[in-house]
Write a structure and sequence with these properties.
Blueprint: H1 2-21, H2 28-33, H3 42-78, E1 89-90, E2 93-94, H4 96-106, H5 115-121, E3 123-125, E4 135-140, E5 143-152, E6 155-158, E7 167-170, E8 176-180
Antiparallel strand pairs: 1-2, 3-8, 4-5, 4-8, 5-6, 6-7
Amino acid sequence: MALLTRARNVALAGVTALAVALPIAPMAAPAAAAPAPGASTPAATTASVVAGDRKKKSSRSSRSFAVRAKKVMSTGNSLKGVPYRYGGTTPRGFDCSGFTSYVYRKAGVRLPHSATGQMYKARRISRSSARPGDLVFFRSGGRAYHVGIYAGGNRVLHSPRPGQRVGTVRIWSRNVTFGRVL
């Protein structure tokens, strides 16, 4: 607010200086008061700085999905073969949501340690728009009983169940929801 007030005062001071310097003529005052096309005023400069900040965020957002998705897939694939461990959240052993939360944390995204919690945090997307690095939730009613990472080609990278290891398998159910958190 203080910056806007100062910019207004500077603009008014400039108009006052122009009025003193120019002779009073009915047509000259409006032409002198209006900025030339392409010239920047303090208010226009402030608006362009704000607009420039918005552009940076949107371009960073589209770039960061590809970068983070690549990080998610490389981290997840590097953990293939780690055994299932109930409640596990480390490379010594993972349960399904412990695996996804660990992999996403390495990509800079914090997720809760429950499949349902992760489902509610993710933005729901259609199966056709799912890309490798998105989440796949296996559902029963309003809850998710299992979660994995979409690997493309109707496959999921996940930590399945006791006695098995992290790996990639075909999606076995129709009752799935896809979500994006990147």
